[in-house]
Amino acid sequence: MAEKKGQSLEEQSLEEIFSDLEQTIKKMEEGEISLEESFQLYHQGMDMLKACNSKINKVEKKMLLLDEEGEEHEF
């Protein structure tokens, strides 16, 4: 689940990771899984959250701010 179509988390888009994360959460909420599988899904979910956070941080660093004179500055 952490890899989609042979892609690593780094290669997936935020939307793809969020979709996988939603599926993981649904599986955990069903309650029909073993404790071991719950732990596995939890760790996969945490890896997905870390990948999302990393991607968001990269985007934030690339954002530009406009100052009062309309000049661009890095965020």
Write a structural description:
- By secondary structure, this protein is mainly alpha-helical.
- It is 60% helix and 8% strand.
- It is built from two helices and two strands; from the N terminus they run H-H-E-E.
- A hairpin with a 5-residue loop joins strand 1 and strand 2 (72-74).
- The longest helix has 28 residues, at 35-62.
- The protein starts with 13 loop residues before the first helix and ends with a strand.
- The mean pLDDT is 84.
How would you briefly describe this protein structure?
This protein is mostly helical and 75 residues long. It has helices at residues 14-30, 35-62; strands spanning 64-66, 72-74. It is found in: Cytoplasm.
Secondary-structure blueprint:
Layout: H1 14-30, H2 35-62, E1 64-66, E2 72-74
Point out poorly predicted stretches.
none
Total number of beta strands: 2
The secondary-structure class comes to mainly alpha
Distance between the termini: 33 Å
Biggest β-sheet: count, sense, barrel?
Answer: 2 strands, antiparallel
Percentage of β-strand residues: 5-15%
Summary tags:
two-stranded antiparallel ribbon, 75 residues, elongated, 60% helix, 2 strands, mainly alpha
